[in-house]
């Protein structure tokens, strides 16, 4: 399959994006790349960025000899969070919600509330010198023709500065997109290495968090989709199986949109359980409640569409009555999380009512689930989240959950903007999914 660039952006989600661009632009700061910077080599962008944000973190010289991206065992003994940063500064389109100010906004918030290694010493570790994913890693999920096709269209991206590679979203590419997408996927697999290594010497290994973009969960095996280039979480799932012999992978996707790409990659696979909660009727329209997997994989996909307006109460019930029992029955070897923060009540792209406190609860509960079920092996992957403030404070509160510290959500959340959740419809959806999956 040849990847065909699209040169006129269609609307759909794009319209919603553009409606909100004023709000997003107002939040953009000096991290924004100027257009001439697009032609810089991505590694240079990456290293400049890392230099700025990583004071106090671990450097290459401290890494174990076998794998240059994995901190040594002694370095992870006290760690409660280990994160990687791949902000894709060259992959950017002005006024697009999936822009290059997202990861820097998170890093700024983490610095501001003193949650980086500079303030936390060995409790919080940032991985350095990330290894880009190999083409074989990517091809464990995506068609090789797509991978080589994307590399080829980088020439056109260089010529034009920016091209569209998929109509939905739309999904754009710049001259650095291919390399930066490899780096994003590699930042995820590197964390899998670190968390697995730490779990061999500790019952309480650090939770991994890949602060990466472009996001991945809409990218289908044959190509890009919905702002996503490579399926970062899906690639990490295959990598965990292949590189570490972790056969059973449980993927939780709490992004407001259905993770259709991950869904499709493992639809007939009984060893990778994909569980997605998402807003009913939102992009891309897949993830109906009766989509449960196929063939040998039947029952290993769970899709729970939630009515618009669902919020903290709904998600707490879903966690207790659906996510936890489902994971307990599956008995995973590792839990991977598509962590989208666009279900936040302040997010411009959807209409759920999650709060910063909801994300704290999810982070804390999923960490505990991993501790109970799979030696604490758990890695979060950044997906959506387009209000830079709610995104960054929700990620920060997720870090607090991993550290076992109290939530500071009350300082950020404003209960006055919330309205009644559609509790009757939520209850019906939960009853139905429990019946379908015999929970
Ligand atoms: Zn999303």
Short overview:
The chain has a single domain, classed as 3-Layer(aba) Sandwich (Arginase, Chain A). The protein is built from 16 helices and 10 strands.
Q: What does this protein structure show overall?
A:
The protein is of the alpha/beta class and 439 residues long. It has one domain (13-436): Arginase, Chain A (3-Layer(aba) Sandwich). Helix content is 41%, strand content 12%. It has helices at 13-19, 21-27, 42-53, 73-76, 102-112, 117-120, 135-139, 144-160, 177-199, 232-244, 260-265, 312-330, 356-373, 388-403, 409-412, 423-436; strands at 81-86, 124-126, 163-166, 171-173, 207-212, 249-253, 272-279, 301-306, 334-339, 378-382. The strands form two sheets. It has an eight-stranded parallel β-sheet with strand order 2-1-5-10-9-6-7-8, with helices on both faces. It has a two-stranded antiparallel ribbon with strand order 3-4. Helix 11 links the parallel strand 6 (249-253) and strand 7. It is globular and about 55 Å long. Mean pLDDT is 87; it is low at 7-66. Bound molecules: zinc ion. Residues 255-257, 340, 342, 383-384 line the site of zinc ion (ZN). Its cofactor is Zn(2+). Keywords: Chromatin regulator, Repressor. This is Histone deacetylase 14, chloroplastic isoform X1.
How would you name the CATH homologous superfamily? Histone deacetylase domain
Mean pLDDT: 87
What is the third-level CATH name, the topology? Arginase, Chain A
* CA distance, first residue to last residue: 41 Å
Assess the beta-strand content as a share of residues: 5-15%
**Helix- and strand-based class?**
alpha/beta
Number of helices: 16
Spans of at least 5 consecutive residues with low confidence = 7-66
Describe the largest sheet: 8 strands, parallel
**How many strand segments?**
10
Counted up, domains total 1
């Amino acid at each position: 399959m040849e990847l065909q660039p699209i040169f006129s952006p269609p609307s759909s989600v794009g319209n919603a994006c553009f409606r909100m661009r004023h709000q997003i632009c107002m939040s953009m700061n000096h991290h924004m790349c100027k257009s001439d910077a697009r032609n810089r080599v991505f590694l240079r962008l990456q290293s400049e960025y890392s230099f700025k944000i990583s004071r106090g973190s671990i450097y290459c010289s401290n890494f174990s000899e076998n794998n240059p991206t994995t901190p040594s065992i002694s370095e992870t003994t006290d760690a409660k969070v280990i994160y990687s940063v791949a902000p894709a500064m060259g992959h950017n389109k002005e006024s697009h919600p999936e822009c290059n100010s997202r990861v820097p906004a998170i890093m700024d918030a983490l610095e501001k509330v003193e949650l980086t290694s500079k303030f936390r010493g060995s409790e919080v570790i940032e991985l350095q010198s990330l290894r880009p994913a190999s083409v074989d890693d990517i091809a464990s999920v995506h068609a090789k023709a797509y991978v080589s096709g994307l590399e080829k269209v980088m020439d056109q991206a260089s010529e034009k500065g920016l091209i569209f590679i998929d109509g939905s979203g739309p999904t754009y590419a710049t001259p650095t997109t291919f390399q930066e997408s490899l780096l994003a996927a590699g930042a995820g697999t590197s964390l899998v290495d670190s968390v697995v290594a730490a779990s061999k010497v500790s019952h309480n290994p650090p939770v991994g968090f890949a602060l990466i973009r472009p996001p991945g969960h809409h990218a289908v095996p044959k190509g890009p989709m919905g702002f996503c280039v490579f399926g970062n979480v899906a690639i990490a799932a295959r990598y965990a199986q292949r590189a570490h012999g972790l056969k059973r992978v449980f993927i939780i996707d709490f992004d407001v949109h259905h993770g259709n790409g991950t869904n499709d990659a493992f639809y007939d696979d009984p060893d990778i359980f994909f569980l997605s909660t998402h807003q009913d009727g939102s992009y891309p329209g897949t993830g109906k409640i009766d989509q449960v997997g196929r063939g040998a994989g039947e029952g290993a996909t769970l899709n729970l569409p939630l009515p618009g307006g669902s919020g903290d109460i709904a998600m707490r019930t879903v966690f207790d009555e659906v996510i936890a029992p489902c994971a307990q029955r599956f008995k995973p070897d590792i839990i991977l999380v598509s962590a989208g923060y666009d279900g936040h009540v302040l997010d411009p792209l959807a209409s759920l009512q999650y709060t910063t406190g909801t994300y704290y609860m999810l982070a804390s509960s999923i960490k505990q689930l991993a501790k109970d079920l799979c030696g604490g092996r758990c890695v979060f992957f950044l997906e959506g989240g387009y209000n830079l403030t709610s995104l960054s404070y929700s990620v920060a509160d997720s870090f607090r959950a991993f550290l076992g510290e109290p939530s500071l959500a009350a300082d950020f959340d404003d209960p006055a903007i919330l309205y009644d959740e559609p509790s009757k419809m939520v209850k019906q959806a939960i009853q139905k999914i429990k019946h379908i999956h015999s929970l």
